């Protein structure tokens, strides 16, 4: 099966063929995200040798690691961004990308997400939000909608979901966008932008999990979930004209933030040059 | 950068910034300078007493030698960033104390399993929990060994003075690089905050070890394989186009995950253990004082080793045959040497600032007839020479009675 995928699928050159086929469930949005990421890399003509992909734990962490053929670092639960920070400081000229899930990056790893955005370190985070802890069996996540049914909220969820994209935008990221797996082309364009923007960038990809989420919330099939994304998505420009009442339960899609501000590794290197010049060899002023 | 080939510039810088000679400094500062001399150019940490001076010194000194300091959002992030930086080739370090060390344990296990070189300094403080935050202790002996989950090897080193802290930090880096394993430096709050004279050497006097890199494309394909037969795989660093896959899951020699085949897990975990077993003599280090004719042997580590030596000297003055054994590498524990020494002694005393931790390791290697007695003190105040001497005297008294029976 791996061989067949490898010959038919144009983006397969970016995949680690010995790791195929993927472990993702049929109908999972993870495949769409992997495809969108591969296309973005392809369209930008980024050499995978100039790419380090870091992920945490869970279904979405598997999207790029091990499947993407680059240097890949599959880390402990929630800590991908903190690991990526060390990688980026060591390799400031490479593209460092974190691909992982909502539970991993915004739940257990929420603190790292906020602080990486605050630092504005040049890392691209593709956060796959499927509203659920999929790999561990469909437990409630920090993104699970209010009232939804999961294996640990068998009656209904009484907690409110975290608005990840807005939180990261206010924490200070350079670029933030949100799309769903229904908006494939927009998703590719946003990933491309995120990869080219200097500074911390986040693309939140709302993704379907028919197996663990949809099944328990009257959306058994992948198609039903995608239709739900289609019907409930509101472009950010239109959302600005709507009342909070009208926006209830809607998914606001589009670019939330796109701004320039000083980037962390660059500032760190400026500082080092400054200090090293003051104390370094051959500088007579320092003697 | 620290990479091979940069030594002339780095040596010049070190010589200029820290000229050879005598300095007056804290143990924490000595650890930071040791790291700089060892080639450490990346530090990520989170402030905690009594380890903060390491971070402060690194923040001040690292940029001077073109190194990187980051204060992360917590201890978990700190060791995570250190692991990430190590895979790009940096010799990297973090430092913490009690509660922070507990938080780092999961990622310490990750570093063990992915064979990532790094140095983790634990400036031990009183516990459990927040304990006496500003006071020193020696309560993390087993946390260093068994704090992270699963079957795993570890190297832990414990310095006994400020000058020793400088040299043992360098040794920690060298062992870490040589064997691709995280090394824990078990310092303590008392030495960390004590100021005393230390001699800073010429950088040329310091032996520096670099991790082994793949010699060719073929070797880079087995980042976790025993390609040289010495159980230490060359490390294909990120950014070199090797497409290396690193995971904390059980992995094959290629790095790819395989958590289903029992043999794969067995082979990997056994190699990690064997890696240290085979090289045990290179890793272990200890000091011996007056052990040749000793009737009573003291075994003491870290901060407690110094009043122990004082007590031994006092006891010798009084004509008692007392010796001292100080493990500098506390894990893997130099038990074989203790076993040899214990053959000729009547009593073993183990002074340490806890309610008895290293004593359990000592007991494992000593025949039943020899009583192994702890000299323990907690509360944040170090053991004194007098307290230890008193124990030596009462032990001598007891063995006189025994031989009279």
UniProtKB/TrEMBL annotation, chain A:
Record has Phosphoprotein as a keyword: no
Keywords: Oxidoreductase
Gene3D superfamilies given in the database record: 3.40.50.970
UniProt GO molecular function: oxidoreductase activity, acting on the aldehyde or oxo group of donors, iron-sulfur protein as acceptor; thiamine pyrophosphate binding
GO process annotations (BP): cellular respiration; organic acid metabolic process; sulfur compound biosynthetic process
Signal peptide: none
Domain Thiamine pyrophosphate enzyme TPP-binding: residue ranges: 57-204
InterPro entries recorded: 2-oxoacid:Fd_oxidoreductase, THDP-binding, TPP_enzyme_TPP-bd
CDD domains found in the cross-reference section: TPP_OGFOR
Alphabetical list of PANTHER family matching this protein: 2-OXOGLUTARATE OXIDOREDUCTASE SUBUNIT KORB-RELATED, 2-OXOGLUTARATE SYNTHASE SUBUNIT KORB
Protein name in UniProt: 2-oxoacid:ferredoxin oxidoreductase subunit beta
Originating organism: Thermococcus argininiproducens
UniProt lineage: Archaea, Methanobacteriati, Methanobacteriota, Thermococci, Thermococcales
TrEMBL record, chain B:
Protein name: 2-oxoglutarate synthase subunit KorA
CDD domains linked to this entry: TPP_PYR_PFOR_IOR-alpha_like
Assembly description: Heterotetramer of the KorA, KorB, KorC and KorD subunits.
Reactions catalysed: 2 oxidized [2Fe-2S]-[ferredoxin] + 2-oxoglutarate + CoA = succinyl-CoA + 2 reduced [2Fe-2S]-[ferredoxin] + CO2 + H(+)
PANTHER family: SUBUNIT OF PYRUVATE:FLAVODOXIN OXIDOREDUCTASE (PTHR43088:SF1), SUBUNIT OF PYRUVATE:FLAVODOXIN OXIDOREDUCTASE-RELATED (PTHR43088)
Ranges of residues in domain Pyruvate:ferredoxin oxidoreductase core: 294-388
Keyword hit for Oxidoreductase: yes
EC id: 1.2.7.3
Occurrences of domain Pyruvate flavodoxin/ferredoxin oxidoreductase pyrimidine binding (ranges): 34-270
Protein's GO biological process: organic acid metabolic process; sulfur compound biosynthetic process
The keyword Oxidoreductase belongs to this UniProt entry's keyword annotation: yes
The entry's keywords: Oxidoreductase
Enzyme class: oxidoreductase
Recorded GO MF terms: 2-oxoglutarate synthase activity
Organism superkingdom: Archaea
Organismal lineage: Archaea, Methanobacteriati, Methanobacteriota, Thermococci, Thermococcales
């Amino acid at each position: 099966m791996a061989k067949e995928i490898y010959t038919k699928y144009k983006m397969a050159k970016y995949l680690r063929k010995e790791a195929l086929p993927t472990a993702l469930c049929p109908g999972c949005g993870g495949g769409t995200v992997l495809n969108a990421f591969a296309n973005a890399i392809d369209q930008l003509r980024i050499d995978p040798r100039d790419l380090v992909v870091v992920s945490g734990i869970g279904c979405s962490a598997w999207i790029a690691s091990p499947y993407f053929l680059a240097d890949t670092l599959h880390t402990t639960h929630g800590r991908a961004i903190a690991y990526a920070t060390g990688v980026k400081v060591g390799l400031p000229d490479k593209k460092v990308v974190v691909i992982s899930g909502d539970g991993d990056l915004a739940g257990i790893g929420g603190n790292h997400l906020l602080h990486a955005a605050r630092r504005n370190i040049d890392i691209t985070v593709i956060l796959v939000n499927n509203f659920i802890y999929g790999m561990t069996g469909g437990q409630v996540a920090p993104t699970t909608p209010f009232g939804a049914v999961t294996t640990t909220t068998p009656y209904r969820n009484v907690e409110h979901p975290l608005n990840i994209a807005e939180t990261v935008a206010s924490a200070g990221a350079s670029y933030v966008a949100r799309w769903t797996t229904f908006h494939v082309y927009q998703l590719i364009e946003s990933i491309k932008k995120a990869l080219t923007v200097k500074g911390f960038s986040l693309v939140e990809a709302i993704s379907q999990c028919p197996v663990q989420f949809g099944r328990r919330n009257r959306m058994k099939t992948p198609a039903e979930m995608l239709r739900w994304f289609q019907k409930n998505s509101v472009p950010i420009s239109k959302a600005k004209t709507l009342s909070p009442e009208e926006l209830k339960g809607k998914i606001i899609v589009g670019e939330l933030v796109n701004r320039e501000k000083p980037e962390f590794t660059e500032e760190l290197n400026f500082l080092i040059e400054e200090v090293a010049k003051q104390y370094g060899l051959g500088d007579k002023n320092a003697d | 950068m620290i990479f091979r080939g940069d030594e002339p510039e780095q040596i010049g810088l070190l010589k200029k910034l820290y000229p050879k000679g005598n300095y007056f400094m804290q143990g924490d500062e000595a650890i930071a300078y040791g790291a700089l001399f060892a080639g450490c150019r990346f530090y990520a940490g989170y402030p905690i007493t009594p380890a903060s001076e390491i971070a402060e010194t690194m923040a001040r000194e690292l940029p001077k030698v073109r190194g990187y300091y980051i204060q992360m959002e917590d201890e978990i992030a700190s060791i995570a960033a250190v692991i990430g930086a190590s895979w790009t080739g940096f010799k990297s370090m973090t430092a913490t104390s009690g509660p922070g060390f507990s938080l780092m344990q999961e990622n310490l296990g990750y570093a063990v399993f992915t064979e990532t070189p790094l140095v983790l300094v634990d400036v031990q403080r009183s516990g459990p929990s927040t304990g006496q935050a500003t006071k020193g202790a020696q309560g993390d002996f087993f946390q260093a060994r068994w704090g992270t989950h699963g079957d795993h090897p570890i190297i832990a080193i414990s310095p006994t003075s400020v000058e020793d802290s400088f040299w043992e930090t360098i040794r920690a880096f060298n062992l870490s690089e040589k064997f691709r394993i995280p090394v824990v430096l078990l310092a303590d709050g008392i030495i960390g905050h004590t100021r005393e004279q230390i001699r800073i050497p010429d950088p040329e006097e310091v032996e520096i070890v670099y991790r082994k890199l793949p010699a060719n494309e073929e070797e880079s394909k087995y980042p976790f394989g025993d390609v040289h037969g010495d159980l230490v795989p060359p490390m294909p660093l990120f950014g070199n186009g090797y497409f290396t896959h690193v995971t904390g899951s059980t992995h094959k020699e290629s790095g790819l995950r395989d958590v289903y085949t029992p043999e794969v897990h067995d082979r990997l975990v056994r190699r990690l253990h064997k890696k240290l077993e085979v090289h045990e003599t290179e890793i272990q280090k200890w000091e011996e004082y007056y052990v040749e004719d000793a009737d009573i042997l003291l075994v003491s580590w870290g901060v407690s080793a110094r009043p122990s030596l004082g007590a031994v000297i006092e006891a010798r003055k009084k004509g008692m045959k007392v010796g001292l054994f100080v493990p500098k590498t506390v894990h893997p524990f130099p038990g074989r040497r203790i076993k040899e020494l214990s053959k000729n002694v009547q009593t073993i005393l183990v002074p340490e600032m806890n309610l008895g931790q290293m004593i359990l390791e000592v007991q494992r290697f000593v025949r039943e007839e020899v009583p192994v007695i702890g000299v323990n003190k907690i509360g944040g105040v170090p053991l004194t020479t007098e307290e230890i001497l008193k124990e030596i005297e009462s032990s001598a008294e007891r063995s006189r009675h025994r031989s009279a029976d």
